[in-house]
Design goal:
Layout lengths: L1 E7 L5 H11 L7 E8 L5 E8 L3 H10 L6 E5 L2 H10 L1
Antiparallel strand pairs: 1-3, 1-4, 2-3
Amino acid sequence: MKYMMTIPLTSSGYKERVKRFLDTGALPPAGATMLGRWHTVGHNKCYMLVEAANPEPIYQWVSNWADIINFEVEPVLEDAQIAKILKAL
């Protein structure tokens, strides 16, 4: 399953977020694969596309950052996946 993770980046916790990101690379835990990460030019949002067989590693990852970031996590489907469903309608 793929998950779109949206991260609002406020000024609260900014220095700690930068430090942790530079120290760790903010990589996902075992069981999750980051397919891409994008940052807005205004430095107010980040988007990540992550793949995992189950949501546990996503929950672990979000929990590791929950003290300074409020994540929005949504399971997403690709066009080919929804096309099969829509054709059946």
